[in-house]
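Deliverable D5.2: sample structural annotation.
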Amino acid sequence: MHLLALNPTDSVTEGFLPAAARLGLAVTLLTDQPEAHEHAYGRQDHAFPALDIVPCDVRDFAEVISRIAADGRPRAVFTNSDHLQTQAALAAEYFGLPGKDWRAALRTKNKAELRRALAAAGPDAADPVWSPDPAWSADPVWSAELATGQEPATLAGLDAPYPCVVKPREGVASEDVVLVADADELVRRCVEIRARRPGAALVVEEFLDGELRTLETLGDGRTLHVLGGFRTELSPPPHFVEERLHLLPAPLPQPHTDQVLAQLRALGVGFGVCHTEYVVQGDRARLIEVNYRAIGDQCDLVLAELLGIPLFEYILRTHLGEPLPDDLGARTDGRVRMEYVLADRAGRLASAPPASVTQRDGVRLDYRPLRGVGEEHPLHRTNRDFLGVLRATGTDQGRIDAAVAQFLAAHRWEIV
């Protein structure tokens, strides 16, 4: 299997590479950061003997295809990177392998194209999910694009529904995503983002206020399974940093789930794993974004554990051309709270609790530091501000919440 990656991630290190080893797959990892991967997997607890790390400009699909071709016929091409889905899909199609439709990968990554595609889809009378209830299609999300080469000043006269949100067109992890109150602030924020991202295309969107949820799906092009969903709590505006997530009990709420699935079908999403974020406004599910990969920040690892299924193996098997079972056999009684400890200022982390795993009253607490004591960082207003993550799992939400509160009260994170 050829796996495309940028920087090392927990999803790959703890999820996909061990799953590939269990499936007996030799992995050629193509990356533009080979030293980082060699360091990550050189440790004793992350040793993968059937792993070959190969330097490659993985953002260039032509280079990816050329490098894979030099190895002989591949068996599968896969990536879990937000940035590399289109490249992996094009490479898989070039070699006649199972994979995502590269058009769907592109239109989900490009937030402006996603909005255009959903607006153009319209209600489909043949699909009862879409008609006669045109909940989302009759009320599209307002958006506008500041293309590469266009000056932010051109947005001054934009007839936007303020407050609205500005974000990079191909951005991730809420980086440079900000709520703006008026036209002057919109132009100013765009100038600031362009200073950090020269020439970047930006998207201005209607602010979708409401409860934020996710939908996690897995498909093989024939069957699309709903794995679960999370309720997400964010930091206060103007920034949007995830602070905690709660697993939504199965079955997931309707009609929102069916509406999200209908919009995924309109986008051509249905192969492999997908993480979709949406806002609940009454009976409407309004999409924030579609990430055509597994949910990150260790949520995918916890989801596999709670569902009690070989989730990462299933994902890889779809890219090997194997059909998914009609019933995944997933458990439905598990609950989780993902609590992210956030830096509230720039500076050096002077003290923080070490990694720990405890179990009491049916609740398992797994705390993992994400920043070492002594490290100094600026304030990013993204998940790069995470100091640590607390994974609290069990079957009783009340006990989980109480255990998290006790843990947070008993520990300190000091930044100087």
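Annotation notes: The chain has a mean pLDDT of 92. DSSP finds eleven helices and 21 strands in the chain.
The annotation will be released with the project's public dataset once the embargo ends.
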